[in-house]
Amino acid sequence: MNGARIEAVARGPAHAFSKPQVPAGITLVAGLGVAGDAHCGAAVRHRSRVARDPTQPNLRQVHLLHAELFEELAARGFTLRPGDIGENLTTHGIDLLALPTGALLRVGGTALLAVTGLRNPCAQLDRFAPGLMAAVLGRDADGGLVRKAGVMAVVVEGGAVRPGDPIAVGLPPAPHRPLQPV
């Protein structure tokens, strides 16, 4: 995973599907998420989860998506840019989907994220671009469902994050638990 880096950062103050890119960078706040983002908070902020139980811990403080997915989707006729499907951090050079639950991502100089699980694709993807939800789902060699819409994380240590910042991966102690939707 040498050369893993942040390609773009995005945040949105409103509950909208897409998030605008912030070329100057964003600030991650320990225990809360992305400063100025609608999903920033210790308790759940995603509207469907708030409706079910607003006291649940927010395991979806930061959404990370691998830029390599944009290339895969372009081959299928979809044109996406960082932030289009709601991610805060667009990465390059790291297989996010292969990380285990609890993997630690050191981003830039000071920020530390703990990966909590997979983003579960939803119907909003099809409202953004018809057929996109099916395009971010696949099957593995055993026929199991593969969710490609990125991973979710919580902020362990805060700090500034900018495009071009390096990403270092720390794995939790074995046995590793595969990512599940959160």
Account of the 3D structure:
It contains 4 helices and 12 strands; from the N terminus they run βββαβαβββααβββββ. It is an alpha+beta fold and 182 residues long. It has one domain (5-170): M1 Pyruvate Kinase, Domain 3 (Beta Barrel), CATH 2.40.33.20. The strands form 3 sheets. The protein has a 7-stranded mixed β-sheet with strand order 1-5-4-10-7-6-12. A 3-stranded antiparallel β-sheet has the order 3-2-11, with no helix packed on it. It has a two-stranded antiparallel sheet with strand order 8-9. The chain starts with a strand and ends in a 12-residue tail after the last strand.
Salient structural properties:
182 residues, alpha+beta, M1 Pyruvate Kinase, Domain 3, three-stranded antiparallel beta sheet, 4 helices, 12% helix
Number of domains: 1
Shape: globular
Strand order of the largest sheet: 1-5-4-10-7-6-12
- State the CATH topology: M1 Pyruvate Kinase, Domain 3
The fraction of residues assigned to DSSP E strands is 25-35%
Q: What top-tier CATH class fits best?
A: Mainly Beta
Report the count of strand segments: 12
Based on CA atoms alone, the radius of gyration comes out at 15 Å
Structural class based on helices, strands and sheet pairing: alpha+beta
Distance between the termini: 25 Å
Going by CATH, the architecture would be: Beta Barrel
Describe the sheet with the most strands.
7 strands, mixed
Oligomer: single chain
User: Kindly state the mean pLDDT as a whole number?
Assistant: 95
Quick description:
This protein has helices spanning 47-52, 68-74, 124-128, 132-135; strands at residues 5-9, 26-29, 33-34, 62-66, 89-92, 104-107, 111-118, 137-139, 145-147, 151-157, 159-161, 167-170. It is of the alpha+beta class and 182 residues long. It has a single domain, classed as M1 Pyruvate Kinase, Domain 3, CATH 2.40.33.20.
